[in-house]
Input
Amino acid sequence: MRATVIHASRDVRVEEVPDPVIRRPTDAVVRVVLSCICGTDLWAYRGLADFRSGQRTGHESIGIVEEVGAEVVGCSAGDLVVVPFVWSDGVCDYCAEGLTTSCEQGGFWGTKGSDGGQGEALRVPYADGTLVRLPREAASDRRLLTALLTLSDVLGTGHHGAVGAGVRPGTTVAVVGDGAVGLCGVLAAKRLGAERIIALGRHPSRTDIATRFGATDIVAERGEAAVEAVRELTGGRGVPAVIEAVGTAQSLWTAVRITRDGGSIGCVGVPHGSDTGLDLSDVFERNIALRGGVAPVRTYIPRLLPDVLEGVIDPSPVFDLTVGLDGVPGGYQAMDERTSLKVLISC
Output
């Protein structure tokens, strides 16, 4: 079968790889229908994250179950399923607590010995703890199928940021970052009842989506100018709930500076680049809570799925470019050059 493989910085190729097979009775093989490129995929592509040459890429997918192991009971051949970006056994203490990303048997797609999501098929370990079945009729609705794909990562990650920030009905929220996760953070904050949502972003095509998703204010400035703009919008006090969806030193610094005393920051931007240089005394003295981390999207899918199916929320606009597998290298380039927000892969 064909799948994407990274060989070096800015060297992603589509190659023939072995077909996935059932290795353990808890496995399933899923034929991928849709996948996509994530902003975190770009860190290896840009040479900012460790990888080994020949590593599979991609961690977001939705597909049809082709085969299951003898012990799998939660799905069967022909089922449409969403594949979260981390597999998990569903039974360990961490999974029982809802922290599936810390599963004792879990792992990330594309790591050594695992398949990647950007390919024609993949082997899913611990299928019962990982896969979530979807209505089969959704397979014939391309817009809905695209929206459901976000459950594998970015929608759940945006929701995690909103939960970490303590978003509740009537809250004023700021979202730092206008990438797909930040935009899904806007959508999640709106879903949780935020009354005012300040989106920090400087790309009109993206901030237009933020407004569509529920943002009430847009701040295009960066750095100190952004801090001043947000504080002006909030009577000088800052925002009680902030979603940080970038992961750079500047974005975290901005998030802290715009948070009001006693507020909370939901950090879901994957840290990268230089040290944050964050002065924890500022966080401590102003009683700011820092929460977030790797989003346990498998736990969130059952909560978010009904609203996606019913059209209460529609995250599909975060995809602005569609390619086939052969077009994946160009998709990476488009996202790297910021000519595309998030690339959908039709497998």
In short: The mean pLDDT is 95. The longest strand covers residues 28-36. The chain has two domains: 2-153+296-346, 157-292.
